[in-house]
Amino acid sequence: MALRPFTRLRNSLPFANCQKRDEINDAITAATSTGDAASPGSATKATAPASSSPSAYHLNPRMARVYMESIKRFRILVIGRANAGKTTILQRVCNTVDNPDIFDGKGNKIDSALVRGSLKRGYHNIENALVFRSNPGFVFHDSRGFEAGSAEQFDNMKSFVVNRAVAGCLRERIHAIWYCIPMTDYERTVTAAELKFFNECDTGHVPVIVLLTKADVLNFTAMEELLEDGLEIDEAQEKAVKKEKELLERWLAHVEGVLGKCKYPPKVCVPVKEMHEETADCTSLMQCTTNALNEEELQMLLVSTQRSSIALCIEYAVQRALIPKMKLRFKDRLQVAPKALEKELLSWFPNTVVSAAVGWMCSNKIPDN
Ligand SMILES: Nc1nc2c(ncn2[C@@H]2O[C@H](COP(=O)(O)OP(=O)(O)OP(=O)(O)O)[C@@H](O)[C@H]2O)c(=O)[nH]1
Ligand SMILES: [Mg+2]
């Protein structure tokens, strides 16, 4: 059958197809290995049932606080088929068009010339950490898509997730997973690979956020359908925005419906569009990821690490620090020390001193967390 004009057009586009910290870490690791019931590691090993609920992995508040104080960098695993738009999203989130520095599993910098060719072909070593100089507060791991059906690729990814999320080497824990499903392939949004991942991969307390990437291409689909309905091009263009919205809602509902029935469903699905444009807005992605996190300290780490939206920093600072104080009785409000409130508010904002220090360490060897 001949391709429809907009399908042909779409297919022709490129998108188609420090000591104190170490002491704390060591203390946590020791607590974990001695089987302290309150430690996150032991809770995971001892209590995680086959179909665990996220709350089963909630850190004990005291341990959570100690752990959170020891981490400085937000670590995200991004999974998705080849060409799903993964690297582009990471670049946009870090507000850069540069390639990331790559570090091996031991934290040593890899000569990017050695791996650039294989990266172009979509081959990624999930153990490698990717760090952009523009925002060294993020550490990314990039997983090659496993739609080709390779059991080995899937097993590699699964054992990485188990080691870094569930069994918990705390210093290298991942904090969120972005699972990318490209809308260029909207007719096969949920394939066997997605079902396998969401039915077999227990990510424990680490939230999985599904990103419907390249959602802007639905504009082509909308135009295509409207023209097929017999509309003139001007009228079709006028109605395309509404139609695009309807299509997106339909596909979002479909993906949420199917994946929601899986054993380990994603926490949330979020469309992302026009990430190849340097002006693209990452606010909703950041907001959804922040809301999906269980621990307030992790939320604070993400909000203060991201540079996409100062509005997000303000919103969280107001909601979490200011409003609770305003709700206090007048007498109690007078007890709030201005310096303490200032510290609390500012902890939701980027800390340039920390960023600079992390950036400096990062230029040669990636720090442990
Ligand atoms: N229309 C559109 N194109 C996009 C978007 N995001 C990325 N692209 C394009 O899609 C192509 C692939 O993007 P990449 O970010 O390299 O995809 P990837 O998932 O990292 O690919 P591999 O590393 O090969 O697995 C590039 O040509 C991007 O410009 C988007 O939101 N909309
Ligand atoms: Mg890539």
Structure, described:
- The chain contains 16 helices and eight strands.
- The radius of gyration is 22 Å and the shape is globular.
- Helix 1 runs antiparallel to helix 9.
- The protein has a domain at 5-17 and 61-297: Rossmann fold, CATH 3.40.50.
- It starts with a helix and ends in a 7-residue tail after the last helix.
- It has 369 residues and is an alpha/beta fold.
- The longest helix is centred in the last third of the chain and has 28 residues, at 233-260.
- The strands form two sheets. Strands 5-1-6-7-8 form a five-stranded parallel beta sheet, sandwiched between helices.
- The structure holds guanosine-5'-triphosphate and magnesium ion (MG).
- The site of guanosine-5'-triphosphate has 19 residues, from helix 5.
- Residues 14-15, 80, 82-88, 122, 213-214, 216-217, 273-276 line the site of guanosine-5'-triphosphate (GTP).
